[in-house]
TrEMBL record:
It comes from the Eukaryota. Residues 1-18 form the signal peptide. Residues 172-206 form the EGF-like domain. The keyword Transmembrane applies. PROSITE patterns: EGF_1, EGF_3, EGF_CA, EGF_LAM_1. One of its GO terms (molecular function) is calcium ion binding. Keywords: Disulfide bond, EGF-like domain, Membrane, Signal, Transmembrane, Transmembrane helix. Disulfide bonds join 196-205. This is Cysteine-rich with EGF-like domain protein 2. GO terms for biological process: animal organ development; system development. The chain crosses the membrane at residues 353-374. The keyword Transmembrane helix applies.
Length: 378
């Protein structure tokens, strides 16, 4: 029966992966899933199986109608145990055989990448999984160790690598001196070489890399730290004083080690005519002047050496001339309007004093309000 389930799982996995939208990039996605190592596939299978064990751990007997294969054990078809008055079978649990069937139904379905490889493993080795399930509960060994390492020889214990599960360099307490990863760790692959962390080199990562110095070393421990960025080639300690040589943009100072050169003070290196210079550690940057400037010593219209043509210096700021003229023109137009309103009021005044005084008050208020709003704005 379970081999039937295994076949169904495989078919399902094939169908779902064929129908997935990622199929458009078929070769790469296939290549990607193929690159899952056999040990990794085995791990996925075991974690899916363990999910199944968890899922079925508390299943009441009644929730598994025999022969009702399509209904998931978690579906809402379960009778309402707490509410029913019938003698409740809830306390008893399903047999391991039934539980195994339940697990097999959904095995590999919760796997994200590598569903197909998971299913292939199930097809090939469902009998082993069943064998494990039939072991008496207290003596069941750890499923991953038993299945992936001992029976199928797909994985190795942690910190072992290769076909014969060789211990990694420095096993057990000092693998790669604590500063690297062991290639093939936990699998039957790899050569056990150390992949050193940043700052460390050597076959067991027990030396400092270029531009790093030994910040601490005793018989068992080594700590490498990066040299100061002013150092070229290497250093014997922290800061600018222990550099072997100084980097470009830094100069040697007998007292203080490598000192930053202020390139902005050096004529031949400073920026173009309409740029200003900003010194940085080991280098410098040029930025465009404000467009109101003709040469400047910083950013903004208040840091000009001279104002650009079309701009005039007012209150230490270079102001656009056309803007200035526009402002005066607006002012003139405004005063002309006021004048016109007053003249009109005067003309009306000769004909009708009452209306004229009303209009006069309105015009006065209008002028006062306009001037108030304009002064608020500026
Ligand atoms: C079924 O159980 C729910 C809570 O689990 C309860 O609210 C409901 O009344 C129960 N229904 C019956 C028919 O007992
Ligand atoms: C090996 O892998 C295990 C877990 O898979 C991890 O805990 C351990 O740190 C790894 N060791 C090395 C040296 O990479």
């Amino acid at each position: 029966m379970h081999s039937l389930w295994a076949l169904a799982i495989l078919l399902l996995a094939k169908v779902t992966s064929a129908g997935s939208p990622s199929q458009k990039s078929a070769p790469s996605s296939l290549g990607k899933s193929r690159s899952l190592g056999p040990c990794q596939s085995c791990r996925l299978l075991i974690s899916s199986f363990e999910n199944g064990l968890e899922r079925t751990a508390t299943l009441p007997i009644t929730s598994v109608p025999i022969g009702a294969d399509i209904i998931s054990p978690l579906s809402s078809s379960e009778p309402n145990a707490s509410g029913s008055n019938q003698p409740s079978p809830v306390k008893e649990h399903i047999s391991d055989d039934t539980r195994f069937e339940e697990i097999m139904k959904l095995l590999c379905s919760d796997v994200k990448g590598g569903k197909e490889q998971c299913a292939e493993l199930v097809v090939a080795h469902s009998n082993l999984l069943q064998e494990w399930m039939q072991l008496e509960t207290p003596w069941r060994p750890d499923l991953y160790t038993w299945f992936c390492i001992d029976k199928l020889h797909l994985c190795c214990p942690t910190n072992h690598f290769g076909p014969h599960c060789t211990p990694c360099a420095g096993y057990p307490n000092d693998i790669c001196s604590g500063h690297g990863k062991c290639k093939g760790n936990g699998t039957r692959k790899g050569n056990g070489a150390c992949l050193c962390d940043r700052g460390y080199v050597g076959s067991v990562c027990n030396s400092c890399a270029k531009l790093h110095y030994e910040a601490y070393r005793d018989k068992t421990k080594l700590i490498c730290s990066p040299c100061h960025k002013s150092c070229a080639g290497g250093c014997s300690g922290a800061g600018t004083k222990h550099c072997d040589a100084c980097n470009e943009g830094w100069e040697t100072d007998d007292e203080r080690g490598c000192l930053d050169i202020n390139e902005c003070l050096m004529l031949e290196k400073s920026c173009g005519k309409n740029d200003f210079c900003v010194n940085t550690e080991g280098s410098y940057s040029c930025f465009d002047c404000d467009r109101s400037c003709d040469g400047c010593y910083g950013d903004g219209p208040d840091m000009c050496d001279k104002c650009a043509t079309g701009y005039t210096l007012i209150d230490k700021l270079c102001i656009d001339n056309s803007a200035r003229f526009r402002d005066t023109k607006v002012d003139i137009a405004r005063y002309l309007t006021y004048f016109g309103l007053c003249v009109s009021t005067c003309i009306i005044f000769q004909k009708n004093m009452t209306i004229a005084s009303i209009i006069g008050i309105a015009v006065g208020m209008y002028i006062a309000l306009s001037e108030y709003l304009l002064s608020e704005e500026s």
